[in-house]
Model the fold of this input.
Amino acid sequence: MLVGVPKEIKNHEYRVGLTPAAVKEFVTHGHSVIVETQAGAAIGFTDERYEAAGATIVSTAKQVFAEAEMIVKVKEPQPNECKMLRQGQTLYTYLHLAPDPVQTELLVESGATCIAYETVTDDRGGLPLLAPMSEVAGRMSVQAGAHYLEKAHGGSGTLLGGVPGVAPGKVLVVGGGVVGINAAKMALGLGADVTILDRSLPRLRQLDDVFNGQVKTVYSTVDAIEHYSSNADLVVGAVLIPGATAPKLINEDHIKAMKPGSVVVDVAIDQGGCFATSKATTHQDPVYIVDDVVHYCVANMPGGVARTSTMALNNATLPFGLALANKGPKQAMLEDKHLLNGLNVHQGKVTYKAVVDALGEKLGLTYTPAEEALR
Done:
């Protein structure tokens, strides 16, 4: 199979779909790889390193899309990239379709087979291709929150860890999944007073064991959200419904009740965000203020630490990518129910129910089960 890697074009996105080491794996398995020039240069993966791994360097993204049978990216394709996709081609990347009608419509029109990292599953009920970036984003959320709590950056001037004689800052993490546990680890490491809200009692018990009682675990209710958000210095939104639009758990009244200069970080922004006041921002212009609360809603947070993120992502995506290339996309997905769960769009059909639930009425979409679409 001819595999293509274009350079990412989203604002301040320096990650790349395949590292040179991953390219070498594809080449070793008998595949050809073309990489757009400078695709990984910003994070130390030079064209020379790709060539040494066996890739061919091409000058434009247009050439990559025109020649490759499978496109491997990181972020969702931008409109001009969607328009370069074609029937019979496979796209393997993050998609986040539910809050994005424009991308969804363009991918349906392309006729391509589009596999979303964020909906591939595993035997434990997890999302193995989303998990590495959730780990990064969870850790970065507290790093970013601590930064914007500084007075010079619009915050209240609170040090999360406090100092002897001064109480630490209060961090509320809404959601106890992969993002939440990593946010809590970072906040606890800084010495903050940390509370996690979740609606799963087994998960809360697990978190209590993991943190040995150092983090408060609270069952999530409207009253709990209202109480703990109003007292927090930093609120991290870490809620996920796989492939679906994130629920708006923090509403406008909750934001108005927060302390002036407090900070909210919405890690769920890729799926529409879990704060009612959230709107996607970029690393170039990451924050805005609503009701004296600083909002950090960067839609590609892990791109800020692009080298670490790229290597972590490739560790997870490579085995599935090799299966797609070795067996062909159709056979690979029919043989692996977890990879099949990653199929969101195939030859003009939407094959992920949560996307149809979110956008079906607006775009006139109907749901076709993935296996039915492939067969």
